[in-house]
Amino acid sequence: MTATTVRTNYEIKDPSLAPKGKQRIEWAGREMPVLRLIQERFAQEKPFAGLRLAACCHVTTETAHLAIALKLGGADAVLIASNPLSTQDDVAASLVVDYGIPVYAIKGEDAETYTRHVQKALDHRPNIIIDDGSDVVATLIQERQDQIQDIIGTTEETTTGIVRLKAMLRDSVLTFPAMNVNDADTKHFFDNRYGTGQSTLDGIIRATNVLLAGKNIVVAGYGWCGKGTALRARGLGANVIVTEIDSVRAIEAVMDGFRVMPMEEAAPLGDIFITVTGNKHVIRGEHFDVMKDGAMVCNSGHFDIEIDLKTLAAKSTEIKEVRNFTQEYKLNTGKSVVVLGEGRLINLAAAEGHPSAVMDMSFANQALACEYLVKNKGELEAGIHSIPKDVDEEIARLKLVAMGIKIDSLTAEQIEYINSWTSGT
């Protein structure tokens, strides 16, 4: 922590940053009409009155609107950062100063500080947890068993977090409901594909100012995040190579016009490498050994383990920062590998994360998932639950209305036809 860090019932960089943060929060709100409608309803209905809520999210201008919605809904809410490099310090300051929401988040916080903030979230004794990567839920289960009785449920919006929740369920330790926000259509189709696609390349450009046209960009993983990243990289003129472990996704990448090969074959070819898998050590020692001099590696998955930075450091004779969020590792072979954003989420480390128009739908899902947990308290079984289809469709409908886009409706004849087995060709 720096000398300007303030510690009280919140922990932020500097309260004097609040005016700038408030201005940026209000700007983001221009492109978040769905969440604004939810805020207005929550302010009237107070669905979270008397409930404590802890949210572990990227502390950005978009997240601010989710936090405001929860408070307007009556929640006693606390917000902590889900990633050490994603916090926007001016936004954290504004949430504390202007909106009265306790925040524990500092851009660049070390592992010890992050762990302490997770404990702060649990000290709040939440009834509902909004998680990003399931760190808070995992800590609750491992260290705070006595608090599980207070939990109504949790929501999770990342692929990594859902994988961890499924592992908890297999081990019979997930004893309360968890809402799978990540797999809602209005989340992964748009947030993962269009949000990650644009913001990842935005982060790379801001960190390096390199021209992407003509570069060989290797995208590791062809899930929704990988699809979006590959699509946007090609749109900027890059030659895109995809690596995959899933045969179906690999075929899809080929059919979408990308070259597909193992990482060991892609490693000597790539100029820029982007991991979007959610797994560990996707790029490792044997890959660094054969990379071009000056090859750049970054991550847009979740945790900073997708790139094996420990092995890279062990192979290096010098590590130096050459630009903000850009470190050059000088290998003992004389070549260098450039790591962006310390291997953490490049779109949030070096840029501002997803555009607010995309997060409007993602955070609408989060807010409505929390409301669903409260409305169905005591009725949902322990385990992982999908966002109800009607909620997903309503978010999409509201977004279309806000965009001024109209769509067709089925006629009575069409409804009868698709519901009948007697009408043939």
Automatic annotation (TrEMBL):
GO terms for cellular component: cytosol. Its EC number is 3.13.2.1. GO terms for molecular function: adenosylhomocysteinase activity. It is an enzyme of class 3 (hydrolase). Pfam families: AdoHcyase (PF05221), AdoHcyase_NAD (PF00670). It is found in: Cytoplasm. Its cofactor is NAD(+). Its main location: cytoplasm. Signal peptide: none annotated. Belongs to the adenosylhomocysteinase family. It catalyses: S-adenosyl-L-homocysteine + H2O = L-homocysteine + adenosine. This is Adenosylhomocysteinase. Substrate binds at T60, D132, E157, K187, D191. NAD(+) binds at residues 158-160, 192, 221-228, 244, 279, 300-302, 347, 354. CDD domains: SAHH. Residues 192-353 form the S-adenosyl-L-homocysteine hydrolase NAD binding domain. Keywords: Cytoplasm, Hydrolase, NAD, One-carbon metabolism. The gene is ahcY. It comes from Planktothrix tepida PCC 9214. Pathway: Amino-acid biosynthesis; L-homocysteine biosynthesis; L-homocysteine from S-adenosyl-L-homocysteine: step 1/1. GO terms for biological process: L-homocysteine biosynthetic process; one-carbon metabolic process; S-adenosylmethionine cycle. It comes from the Bacteria. May play a key role in the regulation of the intracellular concentration of adenosylhomocysteine. Binds 1 NAD(+) per subunit. The keyword NAD applies.
